[in-house]
Specification:
By secondary structure, the chain is α+β, with helices and mostly antiparallel strands. It has one domain. The protein is built from five helices and four strands; from the N terminus they run ααααββαββ. Strands 1-2-4-3 form a four-stranded antiparallel beta sheet. The protein is elongated and about 80 Å long. The relative contact order is 0.12.
């Protein structure tokens, strides 16, 4: 029969053992939180890259062909091939159509066909392809238009808009690319890109918004 004192010692944890377990749990939680922070930071960087890349597509296309992608009236000559005939714009220097258009003849929709056919951007050139509409790093739609998306935006020749961005990310993006206030400056955020704008202080971290930037 075991000694009663030995039995009592084996029936529970010592303070040292409990402390070790708590330290391990703390380290695990800290690692998870840090990992999530790094993931979120990477997502914001990818979203920022989405906004930065589109002007590169425009300037690259203009440098090659002296025309505006989407609006290019000579796209057939510039980026067409014997087996591929791209759509054409009217050459008036404006990217007509909404940034999130699904109409194959809209210049904002053809923009992606032109820059892809020119080798400037990845993605299909077939406007009927299921994966033709471009998405941002979070899976939301991204696009470009000439018309001002928000009434309070005063500067910009073209406007890049990106949907499905959480309020938390929208505020971080604005801090990286603009003035840190989402209802002023060249980057603004709203529930829809139809003229309504939400201020930084009213953005809910978990709610998704459309973020637009003038270039």
């Amino acid at each position: 029969m075991p000694h009663p004192h030995i039995a009592r010692r084996q029936s529970g944890f010592t303070l040292i053992e409990i402390a070790i377990v708590l330290v391990i749990i703390g380290l695990l939680l800290g690692g998870i939180l840090k990992g999530q922070e790094l993931i979120n930071s990477a997502r914001v960087k990818n979203l920022a890259s989405d906004f930065r890349n589109i002007p590169v597509f425009i300037y690259g296309y203009q440098d090659k062909f002296k025309a505006l992608p989407g609006d290019d009236s000579a796209a057939t000559t510039h980026v067409g091939t014997a087996t591929f005939t791209p759509g054409t714009g009217n050459g008036d220097g404006i990217i007509a159509g909404n940034w999130n258009s699904t109409t194959a003849t809209d210049e904002s929709f053809l923009f992606w066909q032109h820059v892809r056919a020119a080798g400037l951007a990845p993605g299909p050139t077939d406007v009927t392809a299921a994966d033709y509409p471009p998405n941002n790093a979070l899976g939301g739609r991204i696009g470009i238009q000439s018309a001002k998306p928000f009434t309070s935006m005063n500067s910009g020749t073209y406007f890049i808009c990106s949907a499905g961005i959480s309020g938390k990310f929208a505020k971080q993006l604005d801090s990286q690319l603009d003035d840190g206030v989402t209802n002023t400056g060249s980057m603004q955020a709203g529930t829809t890109a139809d003229g309504s704008v939400a201020a930084t202080g009213t953005l809910d971290d978990a709610t998704t918004y459309t973020v637009c930037m003038g270039i």
